[in-house]
Design brief:
With 159 residues, the protein is mainly alpha-helical. It contains six helices and two strands. Among the domains are: 61 residues, no CATH class; 45 residues.
Length: 159
Amino acid sequence: MQSGGLILVMPETAKTVFRATTSTVSIALADMAKLPVIPREIEDILAITASERKRWLEDGRLPSAGTRTVRLQGRARRITFHVFDPRVVEDLLDRGAVDEWREEDAAAKAENRRRAAYQAKLTRSLKKQKKAKQVEQNADDALIGLFGWDEFGSDGLLR
């Protein structure tokens, strides 16, 4: 087996068997190229992680060719997963879309972090303002109508 080809070796006396085997293998290879790509295979082909595949599938960057449902052997439960068109996978690989998507994701992640840091800073400043107003309100309340604590304490009622 070589990259992009197969070598079939048979005795010279078996020409008819060789022709039959060659046609069978050619048909199988042609049909194999049309088979959809399953999730684990697309992760290997594009060198992506499962979380990247799921994220890109969800936001529409990685187009699905449909779903397949299978029942695992020895289990009553069925699982459903997305499959992908091999031509689309080849196109993504050829144009380097995965690298572009990773750069976009990194930029979006940085923007989200920046936005979250700003929101946290705003929340902290609002809490400080609220606490300062509360302390000011408590000081105003103490000045307004709470006289006589010294006499109350000197009578021994506060211990």
